Amino acid sequence: MDLRKNPKSPRRTRAVKIDRLSNDRIASTDGAPKKIPTALTEKLSVLNQLGSFSMELLQLRDPEAIRTLVARTVGAVLGSENTHVFFSIEETTEEAVRSIFMLPNGASNTLVRNRVAGDAECAVAARGSTGVLAVIRASDKIDWSPFNLDDVSILEAIAVQLGLRLENIRLEGKLLRHQESSIQALAAAIEVKDRYTSGHTKRVGIYADALAQHLPISNSEKEKIRLAGVLHDIGKIGVPDRILLKPGSLTGDEWDEMRLHTEAGFDIVSRVLGLEEIAEILRHHHERWDGTGYPRGLRGEAIPLASRVIAIADTFDAIVTDRPYRAALSPAEAREIILLLAGTHFDPMVVTAFLEAFPRLEACVSAK
Ligand SMILES: [Fe+2]
Description:
By secondary structure, the protein is an alpha+beta fold. The protein is built from 13 helices and 7 strands. Helices cover about 50% and strands about 10% of the residues. It has a 4-stranded antiparallel sheet with strand order 4-7-6-5. A 3-stranded antiparallel sheet has the order 1-2-3, with no helix packed on it. Fe (ii) ion binds near residues 232, 233, 285 and 286.
């Protein structure tokens, strides 16, 4: 019988609710506010801290930041003086972890060692699909009390989340490496076809990355910009050699065909799993801030930010590189041209990032 459906049942659990006005009081449905028992308050506090920990952990990739977050949370929740988090995201074998932390062979992935006078420790392993990815070791509680089963459960809950996060980061890294090799293969294809612009794709990737470092965007956005920079002209694979390699200026019809490389690049790259967003960036790298670009004539912020970055990186490289029809100009001359085009061809905000990145771009050109 489902007791919840029988209000007359004497065994029905009395409903309680948390009083939002006070963290340490509860109100029963039929009585005055009562003080929450200390043990319950402590558990609620632990749950709150674990909830915050989960949310924060999801945002982190940097090993040192993850280590600091775990150590801080364990210290706060368990009241331990020392917390160490040992892990290697790339490769950590279970055997290595055991030997490093002197976990005995055959022991479980939890170790609790309580001593009479302080010096106690509690260690748990964080697991991923390939085995132990990390060990969290807390030692020496501030009040010198021994670690108990509740402490172990809390530490294990943290370790489960840490293991999942490290596993995700590992898989994301693997996917990125696959994507990177796909990108390098595609970029090599256009380099082979267009000998006049040898090295152009790689340099645009470098310049776009340098600009992106001066924009208020996440690291993953910066990485997408770098990769899109490398791939930006992949669609030129579909442009006939008589046009692509033509030493003189192009006719109107030839320009029409050349302009198709943006949509062609989108078609090629959007077929690679995980590169859909990058495909969209390539599609719009010849749009202009004032709406006079192609293929769609997008204007202003309707153009993806990454495309606006690549537009400047692409132009900068074109200016400072020898072409069949003219000699290379200096980086300073390129800077003046790009400044003049701020607000018409280029996003003024990205031009500002370009100016900030200029010393690095200039150094890259000198090293070329
Ligand atoms: Fe292009």
